[in-house]
Amino acid sequence: FAVPGDPKVPVLYEVERTRTGKSFSVRSVKAIQHGQPIFTCQASFQLSQGSPVQHQFTMPTVPPPEELLTQEELIQKFLQNPNLAERYRKHLNKIQAEDVPIDIKPVNPPDIFSLEPQEPKQLFWVRARGYIGETDMKVHCCVAAYISDYAFLGTALLPHRQYRIKFMVSLDHSMWFHAPFRADHWMLYECESPWAGGCRGLVQGRLWRRDGVLAVTCAQEGVIRVEQTPHQSKL
C-alpha cells in the first residue's frame, strides 16, 4: 500500500502478465489514482495438483461460535456499565454504528479498558454476513481477503496497551490460499504478532475451517506510532 486511496475517484488497474507457465502463472497489478500508484500486487496462480507431501498445524481447540457472544453483544455489555467514561462510550457507540459486513465472535475477548499487557495473540470466529453460496471460489477468496484485514494489526498492540495510538496503518498484506472454503461459513481466525519495533509491527494469521482444515495463511506489516508517554486508564 503506497499511499491512501480516494473512495470518490475511480481506480485504474494496470495488469502485467509477468509469467504464464504450465503449472504456475504470475500477474503484477498496479492500482492508480490521480496519476500515481496507490497499491501494487503480485498474484500467483497454480493449477490444482496432488502430492504425497502434505502437512499442517493443528487447529486450536476453542468453544464453537454458537457458545460465544458477537462483538456487538460484547460492546452492548460494556455500554450498560453506568461508570463507563463518556470518551469510551462515544468510541463504542461509533463502533456500533459502523456497518461492518462481517460476523465476529471473539474467543477470549480482552477487557478493552485494561492497560495490562497481554500476549500478542487473538482468536476470532468470523464469517461474511449474508449468503454467498456455492459460487466461484475466487469470490470467497476476495471476501476472505477483506475479512483477514479486520483487527489484524491490532494484535501487535496487545503487549503495549498502556500507549495511546497516534497512527496505525498497514504497509503490506500477503495471503496464501491452501484449501477450498466458504467465506459465509464460520472460520476460526488465529492471529499472532511475533515482532514489533522501529514503529512497525508484524502480524501473522491463519483461517481455519470448522473441520480443522487450514484454509488460508496471512501476514501483514504495518506502521504503528504511539504517544511516548504511557497513559492511565480512566474508566
UniProtKB/TrEMBL annotation:
GO biological process, one term: fatty acid catabolic process
Keyword Transferase: no
GO MF term set: fatty acyl-CoA hydrolase activity
GO cellular component, one term: peroxisomal matrix
Domain Acyl-CoA thioesterase 2 C-terminal: 121-223
InterPro entries: Acyl-CoA_hotdog (IPR042171), Acyl_CoA_thio (IPR003703), HotDog_dom_sf (IPR029069), TesB_ACOT8-like_N (IPR049449), TesB_C (IPR025652)
CDD domains: Thioesterase_II_repeat1 (cd03444), Thioesterase_II_repeat2 (cd03445)
Residues of the Acyl-CoA thioesterase-like N-terminal HotDog domain: 1-46
Key words of the record: Hydrolase
Keyword Hydrolase: yes
Family: Belongs to the C/M/P thioester hydrolase family.
Listed name of the protein: ACOT8 thioesterase
Gene name of this polypeptide: Acot8
